[in-house]
Amino acid sequence: MIGKLKGLIDSYGEDYVILDVGGVGYQVHCASRTLQALPSPGGAAVLSIETYVREDQIKLFGFRSDHEREWFRLLQTVQGVGAKVALAVLGTLPPTDLANAIALRDKAAVARTPGVGPKVAERIVSELKDKAPGFADVDPAVVQLSGAIDNNRAPRPVTDAISALVNLGYGQPQAAAAIAAASRSAGEKAETAQLIRLGLKELSK
């Protein structure tokens, strides 16, 4: 199996690159973000490779890092997500942003991927939610709070405060992070108004 290719960019197609390795041209399918980051024809490139072997074809998928390739594999463990959808997701969200979105139960961020509807986005978030926090770079307290909100277990003042910030135009993950920080400083018995006030201070930092 091919795990890595190092060579020169020969040419580009709509969703692939031809990588010249010692005079042999390999057609490697990549996410749009990966293709945009590669050099012009003639430039050197290294790609982590996932090899798919089928009865009628061998297909190569290329990634800028082993980490990104792991996410490609992980996404395909979700029901209804194949290689094409997994590549589309990684073309929309870098691995860290994807991990953060899943950890924070941000289905809307995943659904921004072309061809990924709300149902598939929800499956990605729900089926990978226990795996994503390990890759995410967000505060574990925010991840915990997002999980509590998603499961209707968060205290009412907290959910009301987050809702208020969302109504003011802040994104759900941003609002959740601010209120998580506010809850830490105000304590468990804080009222909605106090949490909103402290949350807005967090957002203005």
UniProtKB/TrEMBL annotation:
Residue ranges, annotated region (Domain III): 150-205
Domain Helix-hairpin-helix DNA-binding motif class residues, every copy: 73-92, 108-127
GO molecular function annotations of the record: ATP binding; four-way junction DNA binding; four-way junction helicase activity
Any Gene Ontology CC annotation: cytoplasm
Stored InterPro entries: DNA_helicase_Holl-junc_RuvA_I, Hlx-hairpin-Hlx_DNA-bd_motif, NA-bd_OB-fold, RuvA, RuvA_2-like, RuvA_C, RuvA_C_sf
Subcellular locations according to the entry: Cytoplasm
Keywords: ATP-binding, Cytoplasm, DNA damage, DNA recombination, DNA repair, DNA-binding, Helicase, Hydrolase, Nucleotide-binding
SMART domains named in the record: HhH1
Keyword Magnesium applies: no
Principal location class: cytoplasm
Region (Domain II): 65-142
GO BP field: DNA recombination; DNA repair
Region (Domain I): 1-64
Keyword field contains Transport: no
Coiled-coil ranges (or none): none
Family: Belongs to the RuvA family.
Subunit structure and binding partners: Homotetramer. Forms an RuvA(8)-RuvB(12)-Holliday junction (HJ) complex. HJ DNA is sandwiched between 2 RuvA tetramers; dsDNA enters through RuvA and exits via RuvB. An RuvB hexamer assembles on each DNA strand where it exits the tetramer. Each RuvB hexamer is contacted by two RuvA subunits (via domain III) on 2 adjacent RuvB subunits; this complex drives branch migration. In the full resolvosome a probable DNA-RuvA(4)-RuvB(12)-RuvC(2) complex forms which resolves the HJ.
Record remark: domains: Has three domains with a flexible linker between the domains II and III and assumes an 'L' shape. Domain III is highly mobile and contacts RuvB.
HAMAP family tied to this protein: DNA_HJ_migration_RuvA
Function text: The RuvA-RuvB-RuvC complex processes Holliday junction (HJ) DNA during genetic recombination and DNA repair, while the RuvA-RuvB complex plays an important role in the rescue of blocked DNA replication forks via replication fork reversal (RFR). RuvA specifically binds to HJ cruciform DNA, conferring on it an open structure. The RuvB hexamer acts as an ATP-dependent pump, pulling dsDNA into and through the RuvAB complex. HJ branch migration allows RuvC to scan DNA until it finds its consensus sequence, where it cleaves and resolves the cruciform DNA.
Protein name in UniProt: Holliday junction branch migration complex subunit RuvA
Taxonomic path: Bacteria, Pseudomonadati, Pseudomonadota, Alphaproteobacteria, Hyphomicrobiales
